[in-house]
Specification:
Region (Disordered): 181-209
CATH class: Mainly Beta
CATH topology: Immunoglobulin-like
Largest sheet: 8 strands, antiparallel
Radius of gyration: 20 Å
Bound molecules: 2-acetamido-2-deoxy-beta-D-glucopyranose, copper (II) ion
Organism: Linnemannia gamsii
Protein name: Superoxide dismutase copper/zinc binding domain-containing protein
Oligomer: single chain
Keywords: Signal
Pfam family, one: Sod_Cu
Shape: globular
Order of helices and strands: HEEEEEHEEEEEH
Structural class: alpha+beta
């Protein structure tokens, strides 16, 4: 009897977990990338717009993007959504290339035609992060119709945001559901691997989001339990 009731509790737990995972899949949730590397502290928040209308993107730079540091003649820092998460030891090179599910490639993005830009080319579509004396950038936001919260190739879930200094990757952080810790990207060791211009790495969306995988697994597990319950 005891055994049976604890089994039923397990079934209920598995089922409710499954429901939660499924609802996360259906209604997009706010995602954030926290960056804290090489003296650069920044946050990018992606809030879903209604009817799969893209995202409101809020950008906040708390330190590090100084005029003294900026190398590019434009005085700005490029930033993009890259396909893969940050590698161990804050390795920004592990993030691969830009999120580009429509295979636009490295062609220069015309902000007047954002539909023809790479999904992940945020600075191409919306302008670079402009260096300041203090390195702080007043928070600003914009809407981007071409950001996706679902779809294996196009979703921003499980990806990363990378900030560049004249092409060189200087800081990066993972994109996670809001309220979830960003794990790997926040350890403050300055010995991160940077370097290398990524301008033309040809990549596209690949790799399922972890959330989808977990949801699928939870469904399978719950389904098995229900099957077993029916047989009781
Ligand atoms: C900035 O990048 C361009 C293009 O890669 C390069 O030619 C130039 O030397 C770089 N400038 C500095 C100061 O590193
Ligand atoms: Cu980039």
């Amino acid at each position: 009897m005891l055994l049976k009731s604890s089994f039923i509790l397990t079934v209920i737990a598995a089922a409710s977990y499954s429901c939660q995972a499924q609802s996360e899949l259906k209604s997009p949730q706010i995602m954030t990338a926290d960056i804290n590397m090489n003296g650069i502290v920044a946050n990018f928040m992606f809030s879903p717009l209604p009817n799969n209308g893209g995202a409101k993107v809020k950008v906040e730079v708390k330190s590090g993007l100084t005029k003294k540091f900026a190398v590019s003649p434009t005085g700005g820092f490029e930033y993009h959504i890259h396909v893969k998460p940050v590698g161990p030891g804050n390795d920004c090179m592990a993030t691969g290339g830009h999120l580009d599910p429509t295979n636009v490639g490295a062609a220069k993005c015309n902000p007047a035609k954002p539909e023809q830009c790479q999904e992940g080319d945020l600075s191409g579509k919306h302008g670079e992060l402009k260096a300041t004396e203090t390195g702080v950038i007043t928070p600003f936001s914009y809407n981007d119709k071409y950001i996706h919260f679902s779809g294996e190739a196009a979703t921003i879930a499980g990806r990363s945001v990378v900030i560049h200094n004249n092409g060189t990757r200087v800081a990066c952080g993972n994109i996670n559901p809001y309220g979830q810790s960003s794990a790997s990207a926040s350890s403050p060791d300055g010995a991160s691997k940077t370097g290398s211009n990524d301008g033309d790495v040809k990549t596209q969306g690949s790799g399922a989001s972890g959330g989808q995988l977990v949801a699928t697994m939870a469904t399978v597990v719950a389904g098995t339990f229900f099957g077993a319950l029916m047989a009781l």
